[in-house]
Sequence to fold (446 residues):
Amino acid sequence: MRLYASAPPRRTTTPLSLVLAAVLLLVGGLLLALPDRAGAAADTLISQGRPATSSSVEDGTFGPEKAFDGVSTTRWASAEGVDPQWLRVDLGPSATVSRVKLVWEVAHAKAYRVEISADGTTWTRLATETAGNGGTDDWTGLTGQGRFLRVYGTARGTSYGYSLWSVEVYGTAGDTPPPTGAFTVVAAGDIAAQCTASSSSCAHPKTAALAQRIAPSFYLTMGDNQYDDALISDFRNYYDKSWGAFKAKTRPVPGNHETYDPAGSLAGYKAYFGAIAYPQGKSYYSYDQGNWHFVALDSNSFDDAAQIQWLKDDLARNTKGCVAAYFHHPLYSSGGHGNDPVSKPVWKILYAAKADLVLNGHDHHYERFAPQDPDGRATADGMVEIVGGMGGAEPYDIETVQPNSQKRISGTYGVLKLDLTDTTYTWQYVGTDDQVKDSAPTYTCH
Fold:
């Protein structure tokens, strides 16, 4: 605990006028000696309500946003027993930081750093603690400029994790107003193998439990929801026992395995999800959340002229500032299936409509790409593609790394935690151990 205190004065017989004069001199001296403390009251709080991310969470009730919500009884808590861990807040472009106040829960950091970054990748140290004992740490007199600030814990003070009641960042806000309409979405593809939680090697119950802990606004799937042939009986015996717990809040799309049903292509899929998967009477549909327009497509039938015309009409009607599309087959992938040209015509339509984000499954790994155009050329106005096929099916190896691929993870089951605002988006790939395996940059919608 960082304390700033002075010893109580001794009783004397000094005349009152001399005492008052001495006090005034003492206060003036302190203000000159400690300008950082004297100016602290004038600092402006710039972190409250800003988008936040973290390396992990203990469970969905202790999310990173709780440290910045201005409520003294809510907190962020990391997974237990693991170093290092971090908590990050987006302050907006070119924020200036002069003070950071941390209020720790019992699970505090013995050693940590306060750091700032312009891009979320390269960090500059503002303060260092090597003998923390919890309580309140008030770092004043700081000089830092950037968009992101993080508390990076390197040694726990207890056997638990790290936990902060609040992080207050003071200074001058960035050039843009705080994002509004923030919400979280969990996404995954290639989910329910034919196993249940009774088997310790069964992954989809674990990804489902993780998805529930994150507690998003809704869930979306990128196809191959049920293996191997997506029979209605298999949906009931496997998928329904895990991801079925939040079926009502799920917006799915089909994959190629949903077409293998002997009862007919997509028969089990449609029987299980019903109007959830067919809200507009087709296996493709769209919906809005905040300033986002989501387009759910059936990549098994990208040669269907009716779906293509529907997509063009839907995008022409859209009034939202950000656009995300999701379907099973990725145009670009470094996994076993590789690039799938069936998606290229759809990419061209989405790109022309200034879409921002594309989510896919099919290859059983995690991968993110830099913004690119339909021909695979890196460009700032391109679309960001994520492959998120680690929902529970057997992992695939990375085979041929594609241009513009920025990060690839295979063998670690998990989900995408997408954090979206009215103007921005970012995400984390979170493993079933609640650890963040990858954190993306924050992108601004086109």
